Structure to design on (590 residues):
């Protein structure tokens, strides 16, 4: 599925990723953990093609296709989805309009027919009920005036409706209370399938109690410095990142 | 000095120029070397208007021919489409007189529809009786080669309600001016505008409101989107005369500039000579939010789609203030068509 090799990337001329290598096979969930400033968010932006994040060396492919050569919307159409750490507020655009525009844009890019209005509404009602989101909230401007937890749930709703193949969750647990965390995790777990893969980026181990990863990687100093099973997350929670930061420095 | 007398006398020396403070960003004297001959009558049918389905009365002024008179008797309600159609390379002037009796309601849907390199001035006068209500919606679709000035003088009576929304795609030079004599007396005024400009289009939305009595309300929101080499001008002046206490006036102008060569000139002015007033204004000019653009693109919209969605949303906040549902839908569709690159 996702294959990242020796990835180097700069932001504003400063090198943040320094030879990152990572394989996430289809059907698996991998967690990336690391201290602040390790390059976690940079990795998510590089994989999704944000302006200002320049790849200077290395490769990133999805099912063999060069991701780095594609525009952000082309990557989205191929199934790459990023759940943002800080979801944007979009004044004047109802959430339903935003999601339908995105879904149809992806469908057109893939040469598929657009979703009809009744089909779309049916889908939106079903998915919002799963995530315990009040349907009327989807008629309001996307994320405007929403609480932190509501914004994160809205990200998972978009994810459920766009049905991506490769999911990146950037600090999805931040701002969530325990009930919201469980709802979000259920939403994410519902998307686990043999033909999908996920990268769960998190600072804390808490989220991984609900979304059990197949592998855990430690990102420090712009590289993966350790990898292991789910037990590595517990070990980090107990001992902290300090020794990895020293090793990376 | 006005386009009207210049057209009448075929005398360019009478055109407003950059030396006139109120016209410095919409210079006609520097643009027009020679006034064209008078426009001839439009032959044949002018076709249907975008608001025809919503109205009882349709008034068409074609190449300045025919004086439009709209008179709503006291207590009555009327729905009127008023179309100023210009199809020529000549010059012409048009006039409309609108009176709305005490307690009467007028829904006025005004359109400017142009083809060719015409020069035109439209002069409108509105007189509202006590407690009268007018919703004036203007869609200005002038020709990219047309020069058009529209001047409306509005006179309100106490407790009258005048709500205006102008949406324009500009012209070679275009100015839409509204002057309101506001008597206070709990009369309420809303003056909104949207300019959506591409290529070399120019639009100038100018308003002057004079509050002359106690307890007047004015609310103003103008938004613009300019791309390519287009130029948007907003001049908004609110004068609160001595003694016009308890005036409540708000003015906002916000523009998005989507290319390096596009330009927006804004002059919001509040002149306050009364003591007890609540007046506020805000003015911003900027680019689309890069974070929001990336967010939309990460969800699958291409660059053009993301721009269109976010700019529609930006001006949609003005269009949403239109009271009447069907009219709002017509305006929204008209605007969306002009925002898609």
């Amino acid at each position: 599925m996702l294959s990242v090799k020796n990835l180097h990337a700069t932001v504003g001329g400063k090198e943040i990723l320094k030879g990152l290598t990572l394989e996430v096979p289809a059907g698996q969930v991998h967690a990336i953990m690391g201290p602040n400033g390790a390059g976690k968010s940079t990795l998510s932006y590089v994989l999704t093609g944000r302006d200002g994040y320049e790849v200077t060396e290395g490769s990133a492919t999805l099912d063999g296709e060069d991701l780095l050569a594609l525009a952000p919307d082309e990557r989205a159409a191929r199934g790459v989805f990023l759940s943002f750490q800080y979801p944007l507020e979009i004044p004047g655009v109802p959430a339903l309009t935003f999601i339908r525009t995105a879904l149809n844009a992806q469908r057109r890019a893939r040469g598929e027919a657009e979703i009809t209005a009744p089909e779309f509404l049916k889908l939106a009602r079903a998915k919002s009920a799963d995530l315990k989101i009040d349907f009327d909230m989807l008629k309001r401007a996307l994320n405007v005036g929403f609480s932190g937890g509501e914004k994160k749930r809205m990200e998972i709703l978009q994810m459920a409706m766009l049905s991506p193949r490769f999911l990146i969750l950037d600090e999805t647990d931040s701002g969530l209370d325990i009930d919201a965390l469980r709802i979000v995790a259920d939403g994410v777990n519902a998307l686990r399938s043999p033909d999908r893969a996920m990268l769960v980026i998190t600072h804390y181990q808490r989220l991984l109690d609900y979304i059990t990863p197949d592998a855990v990687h430690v990102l420090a100093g712009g590289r993966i410095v350790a990898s292991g099973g789910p037990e590595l997350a517990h070990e980090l929670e107990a001992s902290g990142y300090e020794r990895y930061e020293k090793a990376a420095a | 000095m006005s386009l009207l007398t210049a057209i009448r006398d075929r005398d360019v020396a009478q055109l407003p120029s950059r030396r006139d403070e109120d016209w410095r960003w919409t210079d006609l004297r520097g643009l027009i070397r020679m006034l064209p001959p008078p426009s001839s009558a439009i032959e044949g049918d002018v076709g249907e208007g975008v608001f025809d389905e919503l109205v009882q009365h349709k008034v068409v002024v074609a190449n300045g021919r025919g004086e439009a008179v709209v008179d709503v008797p006291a207590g009555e309600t009327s729905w009127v489409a008023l179309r100023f159609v210009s199809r020529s390379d000549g010059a012409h002037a048009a006039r409309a007189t609108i009176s709305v009796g005490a307690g009467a309601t007028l829904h006025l849907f005004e359109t400017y529809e142009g083809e060719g390199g015409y020069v035109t001035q439209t002069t409108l006068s509105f007189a509202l009786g006590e407690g009268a209500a007018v919703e004036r919606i203007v869609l200005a679709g002038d020709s990219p080669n047309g020069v058009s000035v529209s001047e409306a003088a509005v006179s309100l009576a106490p407790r009258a309600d005048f709500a205006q929304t102008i949406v324009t795609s500009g012209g070679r030079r275009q100015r839409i001016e509204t002057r309101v004599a506001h008597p206070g007396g709990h009369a309420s005024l809303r003056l909104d505008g949207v300019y959506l400009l591409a290529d070399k289009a120019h639009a100038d939305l100018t308003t002057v409101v004079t509050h002359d009595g106690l307890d007047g309300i004015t609310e103003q929101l103008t938004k613009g989107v300019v791309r390519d080499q287009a130029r948007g001008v907003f001049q908004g002046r609110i004068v609160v005369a001595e003694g016009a206490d308890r005036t409540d006036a708000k003015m906002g102008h916000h523009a998005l500039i989507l290319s390096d060569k596009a330009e927006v000139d804004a002059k919001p002015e509040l002149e306050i000579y009364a003591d007890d007033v609540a007046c506020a204004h805000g003015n911003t000019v900027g680019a689309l939010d890069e974070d929001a653009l990336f967010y939309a693109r990460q969800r699958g919209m291409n660059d053009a789609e993301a721009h269109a969605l976010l700019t529609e949303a930006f001006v949609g906040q003005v269009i949403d203030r239109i009271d009447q549902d069907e009219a709002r839908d017509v305006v929204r569709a008209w605007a969306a068509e002009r925002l898609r690159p």
